[in-house]
Amino acid sequence: MTITQLHYVLAVAEHQNFTRAAEHCFVTQPTLSMQIQKLEDELGVQIFNRNTKPIQLTQVGEKIVTQAKNIVAEADRITDIVDQDKGFVGGEFRLGIIPTVMPTLLPMFLKTFIKRYPKVKLRIEELTTDELILRLQEGHLDAAIAATPLQIENIKERVLFYEPFVAYIPSNHRLSHQKSVQVSDLDLEDILLLEDGHCFRQGVLNLCQTLDSPQDESFQLQSGSIEMLVKLANEGMGMTLLPYLNALDLSHTEQDNLRHFVAPPPAREVSMIFNKNELKIQIINAIHDVISGIVRGAIAFQDVKIISPVSDPN
């Protein structure tokens, strides 16, 4: 049994097709098939049911794949230990970022990080929280940036910063005359929300859960982007809530429509999340240090009330 064979098994389990798995592993399909067959012969079991389309794992194959993931991860850890011992910070690093953080955070830190760590090859994807968690668990991401706390088994969370919510209230809105707002001022019936699947949407709903407002027809007007929410608010369709860093990108005229919450302002916790095996921890530490250092200069708020990005269990 070899690590290479286990890599091939994991590729087929993921792609459910020998040809696509071979392409993913940069080998020919006969080579990959032969090595998997050799492993099956050695173990005396069938890992895959080749009679189904797409190819499925056998019952014992599912157990083998679970163990193979652990073995491959630990094998990668050996290289990681050597890199850490040498003080080397480099190589490919796959980072996922949620959509409500990506547009504001990436321009703030990327240039500085690349200049400071030129040997790191960042591969960045914009993904929802659910997608980030799944890809982390499957080993397709090295780390991610998401709103926390998530409290997912085998995933660590390391706080980057706390980002307050800011109210965007156009001049024709009932709250426009107020210099600041409180949670009790909010009415779910005139708050524009992101579409389902965005953790910031759930954070807003959890913030407002004490208002006893009906949650039925109130949410027909939704958008996939924060920029669109601002445009809809400007058209008199209601108010919205923004993450603080998004508010910095508004025009001067639009910034006149911002209202801050009275202290302590509601906020989201934004963290780096990664597997508990801490592979490539030196790069995770480097990204964390660069981001937290830069954002500290942009967000002065420390006394905040953290709003969970996940549904309230009650």
How would you describe the overall organization of this protein?
The protein has 314 residues and is α/β, with parallel strands linked by helices. The protein folds into three domains: 3-84, Winged helix-like DNA-binding domain superfamily/Winged helix DNA-binding domain (Arc Repressor Mutant, subunit A, Orthogonal Bundle); 89-161 and 270-302, D-Maltodextrin-Binding Protein, domain 2 (3-Layer(aba) Sandwich); 163-266, Periplasmic binding protein-like II (D-Maltodextrin-Binding Protein, domain 2, 3-Layer(aba) Sandwich), CATH 3.40.190.10. The protein is built from eleven helices and 13 strands. It is elongated, with a radius of gyration of 24 Å. Helix 11 (281-296) links the parallel strand 12 (266-275) and strand 13 (305-306). The strands form two sheets. Strands 3, 4, 5, 6, 7, 8, 9, 10, 11, 12 and 13 form an eleven-stranded mixed beta sheet that branches. It has a two-stranded antiparallel ribbon with strand order 1-2. Helix content is 42%, strand content 21%. The chain has helices at residues 3-15, 18-25, 29-43, 59-86, 102-116, 129-138, 199-207, 226-234, 244-247, 252-255, 281-296; strands at 48-49, 56-57, 91-97, 120-126, 143-148, 155-168, 180-181, 191-194, 222-223, 239-243, 258-261, 266-275, 305-306.
